[in-house]
Amino acid sequence: xxxxDTLIRxxxxxxxxxxxxxxxxxxxxxxxxxxxxxGEAEEVIDAEGLWVMPGxxxxxxxxxxxxxxxxxxxxxxxxGTRSAACGGTTTVIPFAAQFKGQSLRTAVEDYxxxxxxxxxxxxxxxxxxxxxxxxxxKQELPALIEEGYSSFKIYLTYDDLKLxxxxxxxxxxxxRREGGMVMVHAENADCIAYLTELLEEQGKTAPRFHAExxxxxxxxxxxxxxxxxxxxxxxxxxxxxxxxxxxxxxIRWAQGRGLRVYGETCPQYLMLTADDLDQQGFEGAKCxxxxxxxxxxxxxxxxxxxxxxxxxxxxSDHAPFRYDDPxxxxxxxxEASFTHIPNGIPxxxxxxxxxxxxxVIKQRIDATRFVALTATNPAKIYGLYPRKGTIAIxxxxxxxxxxxxxxxxxxxxxxxxxxxxxPYEGLELMGKPMMTLCRGxxxxxxxxxxxxxxxxxxxxxxxxxxARPRGMAKGF
Length: 476
Ligand code: URP
Ligand code: ZN
Ligand code: ZN
What we know:
This protein is α/β, with parallel strands linked by helices. It folds into two domains: about 5-55 and about 395-450, Urease, subunit C, domain 1, CATH 2.30.40.10; about 55-370, TIM Barrel, CATH 3.20.20. Helix content is about 30%, strand content about 20%. The chain is built from twelve helices and 21 strands. A seven-stranded mixed beta sheet has the order 3-2-7-18-19-20-21, with helices on one face. Strands 10-12-13-14-15-16-17 form a seven-stranded parallel beta sheet. It has a four-stranded mixed beta sheet with strand order 5-4-1-6, with no helix packed on it. β2 and β3 (about 20) form a beta hairpin. It starts with a strand and ends in a 27-residue tail after the last strand. The mean pLDDT is about 95. Bound molecules: N-(aminocarbonyl)-beta-alanine and zinc ion (2 copies). N-(aminocarbonyl)-beta-alanine binds near residues 290, 319 and 343. N-(aminocarbonyl)-beta-alanine binds near residues 62, 185, 241, 319 and 344.
């Protein structure tokens, strides 16, 4: 019997902290040796010229999420995780969403049924809390956090999802007591409703007006409010999908005051602007997401916040709706007001390559920060570290082998999701995930799937260390 199942030789290992040349010995899906001349293995992978990084963790994506308005997500756990694997991702964390009036546990159980036997890579669940009843706050959430669902998202906008400030406070106080990580969708619902009404009165209903209705001021206000409510309770929180400088300033201000406030951004805020919603006919619907992409100055601010550490997490916010589909972007036809277009864009498979090319290769961020943003920090913030998110003895052998010299052109027909478009069609990128291993199994090679459906395992998340309060609040 060989000492290792797999040996990865001659690669340059890059983690969030270090870069060094070493071989990696893998046994039973875990990393068991790092060093030179490690000996024999069942399978040897030659990584000469490649960078060996932790497999990506996409900590914000939506797969097969029931919506209740007739829209249907294009990707389930099968197509979503195959697409993720081909893009270098080895763990995804989508959302088990509660409908108002529904038990949260029912939502989680339903989501297990949707994922069971379908995933190509590992997965955990966040929850979405829309109805923080006494039962949810006192019984369901404490039990679910204990059982490995230790993070959840709340919304300050969307009529069917949003919480009022008192509800947010109740949720934050529960998170503080139980050690859960709170993610916030920060947009002011009333500002958006007011602007929407004005625009509709003037007949301004085309997709591009979505970006005007979802003003960056509405995002800034809600970001500041969420931070203030969390400060009052003394609990950490993470602002998701931050689009530009207004919200970034609020997060930086909070961090400067020593608050545990984390930030996430996504490829669309680097690569798209509001002009991408202004296309021929209804085409702009393809780029309708919330918050919307802004302008080139906002893109620069987002790059800077990735570089200087205001953001900890880089996720796709993959929210997959087919364009030419009455259950997708055309739910209400191709002349519908922007208010009726399902929000979200696809990006599971392109997330890493975009940041690698536009960030690392163009020297806006270094390779260790790339690893921190796309794997190590999400693992820490959501309670999966050090099992996931690093290259260390004892960690799962979740690895992506990158060729920094390879060139690719994004083409939807070559992606593995079930969406009929990508907003990045034709984009030329540098750097490619040549091979992805999830717990030692090669799940994709040169952009093609090599794993097994159902191989992906559900991961229970620990209470995250970054969710711990500072211990400043009185009376909780
Ligand atoms: O437009 C977006 N981002 N859709 C996905 C749902 C969400 O709010 O993250
Ligand atoms: Zn959101
Ligand atoms: Zn989302």
